[in-house]
Design goal:
By secondary structure, this protein is of the alpha/beta class. The protein folds into two domains: 249 residues, QueA-like, CATH 3.40.1780.10; 79 residues, Thrombin, subunit H (Beta Barrel), CATH 2.40.10. The chain contains six helices and 17 strands. Strands 2-1-17-16-14-3-12-13-15 form a nine-stranded mixed beta sheet. A six-stranded antiparallel beta barrel has the order 5-6-7-10-9-8. It has a two-stranded parallel sheet with strand order 4-11.
Length: 358
């Protein structure tokens, strides 16, 4: 494991790796749990090639699996500017009120304060109310009826920019346990679970704690500063219930492991936990940035996907297993033609796997 550094420089280039474009998964597999899974011992760096349904071999009774039950909304709206008819694309990011949303608008230069937009032949109308410092817009929507129903009719799923294929089934960009509307991107590590596999996990005696973190597009925002410490993290809304906090605390109290599904679940529990790793019910906004040297408070293991080069997510994974171990594992994944990113394959990072490799 890497020791915490006192230096105030961490180079972005240290988190780069070579990825052929053809390994970026464009479509989900027919069966979610058939994805491949690389199992990495976070202490030794040893790895094994498995499939996602093999997670049952690595989970033990009493463990607590933490999942993010956020739901991706059809947040991409295609419309036109009133008067000119010029095409416009609006991506919903954060809801501010019943009618107002923080949005990303393309083309942004043509979305000035006071400009009016319409979608679905006027079924939904909008006005640009404010331009924020980062270029996002506050937009107020005007409609008759229920906004969510209109959005369901007019909106498209906001799949990531590196996926060029059309999504045939909308629900494939949501987990099978998605509950609460609010995300502009999926917590993709959870996409590998089927309802049947989750039931098998429960039957093995593993506790499942549900937390919520609404994933924003900041997930895909590239780190531009060569000194990573200068990067400003995006903010995302989270909620942890009393029930989830109790399950996580109980696992640790009884000497068992807490294993998060995805970087979003990881950021949530590490935000909420106190210095002793104790959880409590909480909600709010987090900008937590986890990178090598971070002192873990809660998690013992992580199930995640393969992340973009030079991203904050590969830094988080490196904080758990060490940058050299992670980059070596990624190099092996490229060599073995794993599928990368949102619809790609999975990785499990745990301790003590070398002694019980299967």
């Amino acid at each position: 494991m890497e020791e915490q550094s006192n230096e105030k420089v961490m180079l972005l280039s240290d988190y780069d790796y070579y990825l052929p474009e053809e390994l970026i998964a464009q479509d989900p597999l027919e069966k979610r749990s058939d994805s491949r899974m690389m199992v990495l011992d976070r202490e030794t760096g040893e790895y094994w090639h498995r499939h996602f349904y093999d997670i049952l071999d690595y989970l033990e009774p009493g463990d607590c699996l933490v999942i993010n039950n956020t739901k991706v909304i059809p947040a991409r709206l295609l419309g036109a500017r009133e008067g000119t008819g010029g095409k416009v694309e609006v991506l919903l990011l954060n809801r501010k009120s019943d009618t107002d949303w923080e949005t990303l608008v393309k083309p942004g230069k043509k979305a000035r304060v006071g400009d009016r937009l319409e979608f679905g032949d006027g079924l939904l109308k909008a006005e640009v109310m404010e331009v924020l410092p980062d270029g996002n817009r506050i937009i107020r929507f005007y409609f008759d009826g229920i906004f969510e129903e209109i959005l369901d009719k007019l909106g498209q799923m906001p799949i990531p920019p590196y996926i060029h294929h059309q999504l045939k089934e909308r629900d494939r960009y949501n987990t099978v346990y998605a509950k609460y509307d609010g995300s502009a991107a999926a917590p993709t590590a959870g996409l590998h679970f089927t309802k049947e596999l989750l039931q098998q996990v429960k039957e093995k005696g593993v506790d499942i704690a549900e937390v919520t973190l609404h994933v924003g597009l900041g997930t895909f925002r590239p780190v531009k500063e060569e000194n990573v410490f200068e990067h400003e993290m995006h903010s995302e809304y989270y909620q942890v219930t009393e029930e989830a906090a109790e399950k996580i605390n109980r696992a640790h109290d009884n000497g068992h492991r807490v294993i998060t599904v995805g970087t979003t679940s990881t950021r949530t529990v590490e935000t909420v936990a106190d210095e002793n790793g104790r959880m409590k019910a909480a909600s709010g906004w987090t900008q937590i940035f986890i990178y090598p040297g971070y002192k873990w408070k809660v998690i013992d293991g992580l199930i995640t996907n393969f992340h973009l080069p030079k991203s904050t997510l590969i830094m988080l994974v490196s904080a758990l297993a060490g940058r050299e171990h992670v980059l070596k594992a990624y190099e092996e994944a490229v060599k073995e033609k794993y599928r990368f990113f949102s619809f790609g394959d999975a990785m499990m990072l745990m301790s003590g796997l070398s002694d019980k490799a299967k």
